[in-house]
Design goal:
172 residues; alpha+beta; NADH Oxidase; globular
């Protein structure tokens, strides 16, 4: 059997994306509370995400949404990592309020976003171990929140994945 590398890229990208969300899931979390949600999208769902980003550009005028809406179409798949809101109850003050009880309900707990960041780092390290190209995009994460791809998550980031001769996420 001959398997041409070019014809199996998508399958290999999805395999690496699966390893990435496993790394995100097993990353350390504040107080051991797991509020993370992870998903992998491809195909028509990437197109839908791109369209939402174009709409966000039209509404805000922010060029990042237009640029990244085209850029994600070059990805084989996209890993999404987000966190639901949850107070850790440690009264650390990193959210800007003296205690968890003083924090307004819609203000994110600093530990939630820290957990997302650690999970993103673990996922990207896994991608690097497999030598696939990625880039962390807040813009696509904002569009994923608009589309409610990770229900209940307030802090979502997207990591497009590519296996190509040159990273489409570098010289944008």
């Amino acid at each position: 059997m001959i398997q041409n590398e070019r014809t199996s890229r998508h399958e290999r990208s999805m395999t690496v994306a699966g390893a990435m969300i496993t790394a995100a899931r097993t990353a350390p979390k504040a107080r051991g509370n797991d509020l993370l949600e992870c998903a992998v999208i491809d195909g028509d769902d990437i197109t839908r995400l791109s369209e939402a980003m174009k709409q966000m550009h039209a509404e805000t005028g922010r060029p990042v949404y237009e640029r990244d809406s085209a850029n994600i179409l070059q990805a084989e798949c996209i890993v999404l990592i987000g966190s639901r809101l949850g107070v850790m109850g440690i009264n650390c003050g990193h959210c800007g309020f003296p205690t968890c009880g003083d924090k307004p309900a819609q203000a994110p707990c600093a530990m939630n976003i820290t957990d997302v960041g650690i999970a993103i780092g673990s996922a990207c390290a896994t991608a690097a171990d497999h030598r696939v190209d990625t880039r962390v995009l807040f813009s696509a994460g904002m569009a994923a929140m608009r589309l409610d791809i990770l229900p209940g998550c307030r802090q979502v980031f997207a990591i497009p994945v590519s296996i190509s001769s040159k990273s489409p996420f570098f010289d944008r």
